[in-house]
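User: Predict the full complex structure for these chains.
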Amino acid sequence: MSAARISALENLLERVRRNRAKPRLRLAPKAAPAGPVVEPLRPLRVARLTPPPVSEDTPEIVVEEAPTSAPPELLESPVAPFSGSEPKGSELEAGMRSEKATTPGMPTVDVPVRRTEPMVPLEPPPRRVATLASEPVARLEEPFAEPPTLDEPPLDEPSLDEPSLDEPSLDQPPPVERPLEQRLESDPAPVSLPDPVTAPRHVVDEAALVSLDEDRTSPFQVVSRAALERARTVPLDDARADLEQTYDRLERTAESAESAEAPSTQTSAEELGARGPVDDEEPIELQPDEVELTPSPPPAPAPALEEAVRSGAMKLTPVAITPMRLAARQVGEFIGENQHAAPATFGDALDASLSLSLP
Amino acid sequence: MAGEFDASEAVTFDLAYGHIHLDGAPTRVMVPAGALVALCQAAGDDETATLGHAIGEAMGRRVAVRLSGGSDDRRDAVRRAGLEKVVEHLSGEFALLGFGALAAERWGRALVFVIDQSPLGEEGDGLLGEILQAAVHAFAGQHGRVLKLHREGVRARFLVISGAAVEGVRERLQRGESWGSVLAALHQGGLKA
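Assistant: Here is the predicted structure of the two-chain assembly.
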C-alpha cells in the first residue's frame, strides 16, 4: 500500500472519528440532506461500471492524493466516458477517485440497509404492517447517515415491546411440520388397502402402486404404509406359499403358451413382480420363455478390418476423445488389443499415431 | 504441474497505442475470417503453409512454456503431460485466436484432432492443418504430419501421421475411400520400424 493511500485512509479515519464525536440527534425520517446523500451514493454507481484496466505504469499517486473532503460537485461529476484519444491517466483518475470514496462510506451505507432488508417477511403480521409503512421509509431515505454512536441505541434495533420480524410471534404457534411418524400414525389412509394376509402378494403391491398413483400429494406416506404393512403382516411361510402358487401359475401359462402358435417370450411385469424374494432353500429356475433373453452372437470369424469398415459391417468408434465426450465403455469395437490404449501421456499418444503405416 | 488453461489477461488491448498483445507475443491484428481465407487462397498453398507455420509455432511455444512450468526441457515436459492437458491448452490457444473449438480423438493408435465451428470454413482447413502441424512440432519436437481426414459440416478431422505414410493416406482419400477405412488400413499396416 502506498504512502499516499495510507495518508488518505488516515484522513478518512480522522474524519470518521470527528463525526462520531459530534453530539447527534435521532434522525428524522426525512431529514437526510440532499448534498451528503449524494456523496456515498456515487461510488456505488461507479463501482458497477467495468473498471478500466489499470496498467502497471499508471501512477496511483495522482489518484489517491485527491482531497478527502472533496466538494460534492466534484464527486457528482460522473466518470467521463473514455475515448481513445484521451490519455490513459484521465480515465484512471476519475475511476479511482470514486473508488476511494467507497471505503469510508461503506459503514454508513451498510448498517441500515443490511438490517432492514432481510427482516421484511413475506406475510407480516397485521400489527407489524403499520410499522413497516413508516420505519423502513425513514431508513431508506437516510441510508447515508453516519453510523450510530455507542451512547445511543442503534436506529434499527427493535424495541422490546415489538416482536421481531424474523422471530415467530408468541401468539401464534409456529407452523412446524408434524413428524413423519406422527403423520403415518394419524393420517387416514387415502385408499383402502387389501388385506395383506389373505390377499396375494402381488395384489398388495398393485394396491400400493394404485394408491400411490391416486394420492400423489403424499406418496411417501402411502408407500411407507404399504411397506410397513407388508413387512409386518406377511410371514415368510405365506410368502413362500404365494411364491409357489405364482410359480405354478407361471408354469401353466408357459404350457398354454407352448401350445399356441407364437409362444410369448416375455413375461408380464405383473407376474415377475409378484414373485417376491428368492428363497435360498428353494431356488427357482426361470423358464426359458419367461425372460426375454438376448443371445450373444456366436464368435464369427472376424473379416478383414478394412473390408468390414468399408462394407459398413463394423462401426468405428474412437478410443478416447479429449475432452472426453465418449464413455470408456463405448470404446473399441475395432481396436482389439489396443482397447487399453488410453495413454497416460501425450507423448505416448503421439508416438502411437506416428507409428502407423499402411500395408 | 501446469494448471488448467487460464485465458484471463491472455489478450491485452492497448487502446492508447492501438495494439493487441497475446500473452507476451508480438502484436496481433484482428482481421475478418473471410478476408484471411481469401488472402490464403490468393497467396497459394506454400504461402498459406508459411502463415500457418508462423501461427502454429508460436502457439506451440506458448503451450510448451505453460506446461513445462519453468523446467528446461519443455518438449519433454509436454510429452510427459497428459493428453487431456495438452489438448486443453492447445484448444485454449485455438479459441483465443478464433479458429474454433479443438478436441482430440484416438482411433486405435491414431491421434486425430477435431476442429469444430471454425470460422474459416472448409476453405481454411489447409491453414488449420498447417497450424496444428507447426504447433505439434513446436511443443513436442516430433516431425510428424497433420493431414486433413474429413470434414462433416462444421467439424473437420486432422490425422497425425508420420511423413512416410502421409502420401499413402492422401492417395486413398483422394481415391474416395472413407476416412474410417483409411484408419483401419493404417492399423493393419503394423508398427513402423
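Residues 60 and 131 of chain B are 9 Å apart (CA to CA).
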